[in-house]
Design goal:
Radius of gyration: 26 Å
CATH architecture of the largest domain: Sandwich
Number of helices: 3
Shape: globular
CATH class of the largest domain: Mainly Beta
Strand content: 35-45%
CATH topology of the largest domain: Immunoglobulin-like
Largest sheet: 5 strands, mixed
Distance between the termini: 25 Å
Number of domains: 4
Helix content: under 10%
Number of strands: 33
Amino acid sequence: MKKLMLTIMFAFTSVALFAQIPVTFQVNMGYQIRHSLWATTDSVVIRGDFQYDAGDTANKGGWAGYHFLMQPRSSGDSVYILAVNMPDSDAAKTFNYKFVEVINGADNWESRSNRTFVVTSPSVTLPVVNFNDQKDTTVATVKNTVEIKVDMSSYLGTNPGQFDPSKDSLVVVGLSNWDSPPSWSVDQSTFTGNRTLQQDLIDPTLFTTTLSFYGPVGDSVEWKIKAYPDANFGNGGGYETGSNRAYHFVSDTINTQIIGPIVPTLVIYSGYTSADQNITFNVYMGNAVDYHNKLAIDPTKINFVGLKGGVPAIGNWAGSWTVSDTVDGPTYVDTISTFKVLHKVSADVWSITQKFPAGTPAGSFEFKFGCDYPGVDTVNSGSTYLDNEMGFGVNHVWTLQLNPPSTPTVLNFIFGTQDSVGQLPTGIKKADNLLPKTFSLSQNYPNPFNPSTIIRYSVPKAQVVTIKVYNMLGQEVATLLNNMQNPGNYEVNFNANNLASGVYFYTLSAGNFKSVKKMMLLK
């Protein structure tokens, strides 16, 4: 028994070495490019006290070397980016770093104080910053002419849910300072061209327009396609779903730059729902991080979690992402909240069941959670501080059917993770309709097995559940589950067809609950 316990302890020690938390760094070199302080042969690296933990074994103390070399975010972009993997044993730890410009083999360090980041599971994306915090107040600009082509072949038609050119239109919106950085917007006084796209006479599936505007070489502006009229389209009235598109200024002031053909991500209403539908939104807050400051949110100090989205039932994106958005009658009888407040159902899970009345536009809609906690109103300079789950345009998506299903809809999410975890993963199924009172992990059956076996487990409350399999050396050989699950009794099929005969261990982790059991594969 003592030998078995030592083996299990070794297994968990080994697992910790392999689990990783990606941290993404971003730096804008636009100032250096514009002031001829940067050449195509130059590079930028990251140095700090995190290096050894992130795999740079040649620099145990960090702050040296060229191991963490950054790359442009895209061709011609002034923003450089790099993701490094930190061990999950560093979770909640704070590290220091700086960016270093390498010019002709010589190091040009940032002269500012050290930058910091906190390792937070499941991942960290640091905001874009300017190298050495250098930023122009004035800069020379060049004229770029751009032809934008849009492919509408997948949308065209006259039926509900289709784009009808006789009634609908497309425009280019943005090309202004939506995010920072990039730190430059188009001077609208110099903007020429028609933002409304025209249908091509030869190929009616193409819509095009040509625009001219000024900006600095090496920098970028953001834009999207928007459809009109608002009433026919989702996502706040015709805006493309997802992140903004970017245009990068080039030195070519003569030739027209061609963009596309692109296929826009539009939400076109296919009609209106025939009946009321109740949708339950659950969100796991156990590992929540504020998107603005990248700091972990203490689950015990959360005041409330809210929900806002692109259909009337959840605010239609109205409001300012502040606490005032939660105000509802009767205090202010003419006010309906645009930020729906969830209630706490367990230590880490918040929930709301929201009614989507008959007549709601059918089709896909986007939504996002936000979290209120002490001091949050000072984050992001006090602006839209509750829009702190994910970046601009990065939202959750769900589709309303014309005829709602007869069974209740329950959607499960992890704060800061875009995809839904509401559906059971492949290989997982409910064992019965009973609700267990405690977490449990049962002995697999059959045991010994060849080559597959069933593992049964119980989840008493909504929780992120992880089931993994290890060999006798403590090496992970399979992850059977890593998802948030609703309460219930479940079973998962483990197929070991590719493994050798021997003893294996399987573990279940859910919050503070952990359980380990042994099984034997005989071939």
